[in-house]
Amino acid sequence: MNTLNVVVNNSFNTSAVMANNQPVMMSSKELTEVINQYKDHEKVPNEIKHGTVIRAIDTMLNNLGHDTNLCHEKNQQLTLIPGVIVVTDYRGYKQEYLLDKKHSQCLVGGYSAAIRMGVIERLEELEAQQKPAFAIPQTFGEALMLAAKLEAERVQLELENKEKEQLLIQQETEHETFMDMFFDEDKAIKIRTFAKITGVFGEKQMFEYLRNSGVMMHSNGNEPYQQYMKHFLIRGVRNTPLLKCSSAKWLLTRMVKDNLISASKKEWCIEEIKAKYSNDLDAALAAAM
């Protein structure tokens, strides 16, 4: 039989409970917020109430063999079992629960993947908040080692940034060369056609990929973000975005980096687009052979 232990008078504070290296815990109110944020709003249009989550926690604990109706002290925080704290109001009714990591994950174990991931991410945020930014050196030797480590990290980061900058310059140069060699500025390819050539997605999935990769907006009719507008032409009464043929290599390169196509498939797709859209007759004939 489980026992209730009084923790403190009713001054419920998640941060205080987590202080002094205590296990990370989530309140039932936080769990309610996460569930409402990540639930399927089409299937469950109404907001889930905090009281519903309280009852779900009661059911979970009862199924685990714990009695949730042992105490009715007023204005208290009580440890129901290790990892579970219950808060009572001025009437002695349950006002809120506080669950540790395993009980929080157990509660949403049968919920959707989106809700489970939302809870996991919130728990990770709480864990990160508990960790100190860095350990303060206690000796001169530790201070020297920390200084050396930070300098090495700075040098490595500077090197990586230079490599990224050089790669970006190289890619832009390749893009401009590709454009000048084969295509006029007004040559464009439908996203549906581009998707068909790559053979990876259908049209809808290709638009979804462009949105999820930050190229196009989730709203506003698949409009490209400003920094990527140079790769598209907007046509028709519906302002449909078309991919510039000169930017096909750019988008194919992104797909290679995202492991959607191989480097050899990228080159094959480029040749296909050259054959269909290029003004260079020799290139078109070579691609068709």
Give short descriptive properties of this protein.
289 residues, alpha+beta, 5-stranded antiparallel sheet, 3-stranded antiparallel sheet, 11 helices, 8 strands, disordered N terminus, disordered C terminus
Description:
The protein starts with a strand and ends with a helix. The radius of gyration is 29 Å and the shape is flat. A hairpin with a 4-residue loop joins strand 7 (232-235) and strand 8 (240-244). It has 11 helices and 8 strands. With 289 residues, it is α+β, with helices and mostly antiparallel strands. It has a 5-stranded antiparallel sheet with strand order 1-3-4-5-2. Strands 6-8-7 form a 3-stranded antiparallel sheet.
What is the fold's blueprint, element by element?
Elements: E1 5-9, H1 14-18, E2 25-27, H2 28-38, H3 50-63, E3 76-81, E4 84-88, E5 94-100, H4 101-107, H5 113-130, H6 140-182, E6 188-189, H7 191-198, H8 203-212, E7 232-235, E8 240-244, H9 248-257, H10 263-277, H11 281-288
Antiparallel strand pairs: 1-3, 2-5, 3-4, 4-5, 6-8, 7-8
Helix pairs in contact: 2-3, 2-5, 7-8, 9-10, 10-11
Number of helices, counting only DSSP H or I runs of 4 residues or more: 11
End-to-end Cα distance: 81 Å
Main β-sheet description:
5 strands, antiparallel
Helix content: 40-55%
Radius of gyration over C-alpha positions, nearest whole angstrom: 29 Å
Number of strands: 8
The secondary-structure element order is: EHEHHEEEHHHEHHEEHHH
Tell me the fraction of residues in β-strands, as a range: 5-15%
Structural class: alpha+beta
Q: How would you sum up the global shape?
A: flat
Neighbour order of strands in the largest sheet: 1-3-4-5-2
Sequence stretches where pLDDT stays below 50 over 5 or more residues: 1-12, 15-20, 176-181, 280-289
The residue-averaged pLDDT reads 80
